[in-house]
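residues and backbone:
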Amino acid sequence: MHARPADPPRIASLVPSVTELLFDLGLGPWIVARTGFCIHPRPAVAAVPKVGGTKDVKLDALRALAPTHVIVNVDENEWPTVQALRSFVPEVIVTHPCAPEDNLALYEQMVQAFGHLPGVRARAGTLSMRLRDALVAVDRAGPWAERRVLYVIWREPWMTVARDTYISRLLAMVNWQTWPAVTGGPQGAARYPVFDWDEARGAGVDTVLLSSEPYRFGGGHRDEVAQRLPGARVLLVDGEMLSWYGSRAVAGLAYLKALAQTGEPGSNNAVSPRGPWGAGPCLQ
C-alpha cells in the first residue's frame, strides 16, 4: 500500500483529452508530465515534459519526475504500463468514458482527486452545466434521420469503431448508427475492429466519416473511399471533436449537431463491475 499522496500534487497525464481537461480546471501549475500526443492547450503544454507516447510511455523518465498522481485511460494506455506505474506512483487514476454523458463522472473524478485545490471544484461545476446544456441542445434539435455510418480511424488495415465506444455512442445521439453492429467489450482490439470494404458495400453504409486522427485522412483518401463505396457520402471530420472527451466534449457535441444538420463538417470552434484496471469498463 502506498501512503496518501502529499500536497501539492505532482500530476502526470498520459491521456491527451484529460491533459486538456486538467488545464481547463486550472491544474496547470501541478502538471509535471504528459505524452507527446498531449497537444492542447497550446502553448501551455509546451512547458510540460514529455514522457513518450500513450502506448510507449518512458517509465524511467516518468519515475524521475516523481509524480504523485498519474492519469491513464483504458483505451489509450497499455495494461502492463498501468501495472508498472502502480509500483512507484501513489495514485493511479483510471478513466474510461464510453458515452458523452460519462464526462460528468469524469469531471467528478477529477474533483475527488484535486477538488481541494483553488478553483477546481467551481470550474468543474461550470463545465458540468455546459455539458448538460450541450446534451439537451442535441436532443432538442431532433428527431434525427437514421444513417448507417462507417467511421474510419485507420488505413491498411482499415479500422473502425465498435458500438460500445465513445465515438459510436456520440454519433448515436444524432441517430447515426455505426457499422458494423458489433460490441468490442471493456477493452482490447475488438473495440476497434478491422473491416472489409466488400462487406461495407453489402451492409448499406450510406455515410463514411474519415477521421483526422489517429490516422490523418485527407482529400486523396476521400477520393479513394468514394471509389471503394460508390454512392456513399464521404466526409473528412475532426477526430478531436468526435473522439476527445473531457472539456472538449462540450464543443464536440456542438460540432456533431452542426454536422448532422448541415451534412458538412463545421468550424472547430464550435459503474460497472471492476475489471483488472480498477475501473468499470464503461460508465453507464
